[in-house]
Amino acid sequence: MASKQWDHLVHYINDLDQVVEVFGENGLIAFKGGSHKDWGTFNTLSYFGLSYIEFLGIESPELARSTEYNLVVRDAVAALPEHEVLSRVVIRTDDIEAMAASLTAAGLSLSPIMDGKRLDMSGSLIEWRMMTIAGDFGGLVYPFIIQWKGTDEERLARLTASGIVRPHPAGHAGIRRAVFRVPDPAAAAGHWANLFGLDIAESTETSAILRIGDKFYDFVKGEENRFMQVILDTDSELLAGQTIRIGEGEYVFQASN
């Protein structure tokens, strides 16, 4: 069976430099990632172990508008510049073909499996494979799926050796939960659980929680039908209890248990 982990999340942003500044003011490292030359986008990244935040902006509007299969880019064109919203969570797998077969069998419409690449700020080529999922469930868009080269252990060692994964000046912090506000939390969580093979950790009339590895997707009652908030655990006295608001997204830091 294909493995599933929460790889990263995507947040649409107009000014990538502002993100670096705001995170830096709070003792967090964010840095320019590089450009997606085939899609007309570029990003700023902030790593918390292997999981990370991708702040995605439009570098070439003409190229981004012409993108055919990459729904993440197409949605960025639709959202920006007016709405700097949290876009999607991204599920990492070690067998993207198996996940494609499973999701197709469930009746979903998928993009072709795409070879992604970008140049980092040192000019090194970063490569991956990904696919997006068309449509939504009651208005909530689906995650996209990614597979990186090598094992998680190999990738973490490489990212650590290169200095991409490193301690934040404010102290330890880790991405723990994504919060989605939807009209029917149990239905949305149950749908994702069935599609992606995730466990339901808790379900009530007003909320439902899915477990993905050591992290969670929280579905709470609301009418927005979208990804609203990221919750991070921290042992930092500077960060605990703080909320960093960027565009229409919130990053909430809670003290580690």
From TrEMBL:
Where would you find the membrane-spanning parts of this chain?
none
Q: Could you tell me which residue ranges the Glyoxalase-like domain spans?
A: 6-195
Q: This protein is called what?
A: Glyoxalase-like domain-containing protein
Per the UniProt record, the source organism is Paenibacillus jilunlii
Organism lineage reads as: Bacteria, Bacillati, Bacillota, Bacilli, Bacillales
